């Protein structure tokens, strides 16, 4: 069952600059959907249209099947958590969370109940009297989320909410947010430019570039079957080679012919994507491709080895090291080769 649908949403800013271009998306109730793309690709603008802070130039937004495109933000059962959580530093936690409810003039007992429940939702029971400054960055962000949950939204929008935290705290909060999403059953629409964050947290990822959707899929889909070179390049480390189809399920790149699983017409110019972890280093005489090791970097769980073969630089992840200057052979299995028509 779709909770929200975006149909042909386009947003032009002045001078006909198109920030979001024909955006189509269906989100199911309870899903964790992430908009992923580089800075400036239109993620925040799309979120702001869902929240109602920005009006689409074209298209419509349906919530539970009804057009909400004309509703003001406070009439939508949707709340947003921003990167700058903007808690009021002079108020305690209770007053921070209760702020909006007091404006709505709800009875005091009801406010108390709602604040207590919101704090339980983010696992910070009993924090009512604490001051903002005594909380860690991660705890402050959880309070900001509690403040959004207190209105019992059907959809929570999160715009790079972990961007201001350091790496360790960000990793912790990723897991906490995912746990929170599973516990609460609310629909989350999450924005990030960090591919690892998107892969870790999402049920569904929407990869965007220059206002347009490049691919929608599960993290596994997006990682294993990128639809085009942009997605392949943006998600994870990739080698991208120019190639040509030389027969049924046969592709030529890096000076050798390989079997592949993607059926593209004979003679087509293609982009060939190969993940560094799918390339095997073998003795030179056993490799489909031969080359010279030009760099070796220790990365903890593996070595990142770069091999020069003709004019191609090929990056490989290997558990075994190699020596700069060595001649090596390289092989790839058919399921490690992803072929897509060149753009
Ligand atoms: P992201 O969140 O992916 O970084 P944004 O949605 O913030 O991207 O912005 C997309 C594009 O739209 C950018 O080029 C940005 O400069 C432009 N933009 C955003 N808001 C406005 C605005 N109010 N007026 C004009 N251009 C804007
Ligand atoms: Mg943004």
UniProtKB/TrEMBL annotation:
The complex is composed of two ATP-binding proteins (PotA), two transmembrane proteins (PotB and PotC) and a solute-binding protein (PotD). Part of the ABC transporter complex PotABCD involved in spermidine/putrescine import. Responsible for energy coupling to the transport system. Keywords: ATP-binding, Cell membrane, Membrane, Nucleotide-binding, Translocase, Transport. It comes from Coprococcus hominis. The gene is potA. GO terms for molecular function: ABC-type putrescine transporter activity; ATP binding; ATP hydrolysis activity. This is Spermidine/putrescine import ATP-binding protein PotA. The lineage of its organism: Bacteria, Bacillati, Bacillota, Clostridia, Lachnospirales. Its EC number is 7.6.2.11. It catalyses: ATP + H2O + polyamine-[polyamine-binding protein]Side 1 = ADP + phosphate + polyamineSide 2 + [polyamine-binding protein]Side 1. The chain holds residues 2 to 344 of 475 of the full protein. Belongs to the ABC transporter superfamily. Spermidine/putrescine importer (TC 3.A.1.11.1) family. The keyword Nucleotide-binding applies. One of its GO terms (cellular component) is ATP-binding cassette (ABC) transporter complex.
């Amino acid at each position: 069952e779709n909770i929200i649908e975006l149909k042909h949403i386009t947003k032009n800013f002045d001078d006909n600059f198109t920030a979001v271009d024909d955006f189509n998306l269906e989100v199911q109730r309870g899903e964790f959907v992430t908009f992923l793309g580089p800075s400036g690709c239109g993620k925040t603008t799309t979120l702001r249209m869902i929240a109602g802070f920005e009006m689409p130039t074209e298209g419509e937004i349906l919530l539970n099947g009804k057009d909400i495109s004309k509703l003001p933000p406070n009439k939508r059962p949707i709340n947003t958590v921003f990167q700058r959580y903007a808690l009021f530093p002079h108020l305690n936690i209770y007053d921070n969370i209760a702020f909006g409810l007091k404006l709505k003039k709800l009875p005091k007992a009801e406010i108390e109940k709602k604040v207590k429940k919101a704090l339980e939702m983010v696992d910070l029971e009993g924090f009512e009297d604490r001051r903002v400054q005594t909380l860690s960055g991660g705890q402050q962000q959880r309070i900001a989320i509690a403040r959004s949950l207190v209105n019992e939204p059907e959809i929570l929008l999160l715009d790079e909410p972990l961007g201001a935290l350091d790496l360790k705290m960000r990793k912790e909060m990723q897991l906490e947010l995912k746990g929170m999403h599973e516990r609460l059953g609310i629909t989350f629409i999450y924005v990030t430019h960090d591919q690892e964050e998107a892969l870790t947290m999402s049920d569904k990822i929407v990869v965007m570039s220059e206002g347009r959707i490049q691919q929608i899929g599960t993290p596994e889909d997006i990682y294993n079957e990128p639809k085009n070179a942009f997605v392949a390049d943006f998600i994870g480390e990739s080698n991208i080679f120019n190639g040509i189809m030389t027969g049924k399920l046969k592709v030529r790149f890096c000076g050798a012919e390989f079997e592949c699983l993607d059926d593209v017409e004979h003679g087509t110019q293609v982009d060939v994507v190969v993940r560094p972890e799918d390339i095997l280093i073998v003795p030179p005489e056993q490799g489909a491709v031969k080359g010279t090791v030009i760099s070796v970097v220790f990365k903890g769980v593996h070595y990142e080895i770069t091999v020069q073969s003709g004019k191609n630089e090929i990056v490989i992840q290997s558990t075994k090291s190699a020596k700069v200057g060595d001649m090596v052979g390289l092989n790839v299995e058919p399921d490690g080769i992803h072929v897509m028509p060149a753009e």
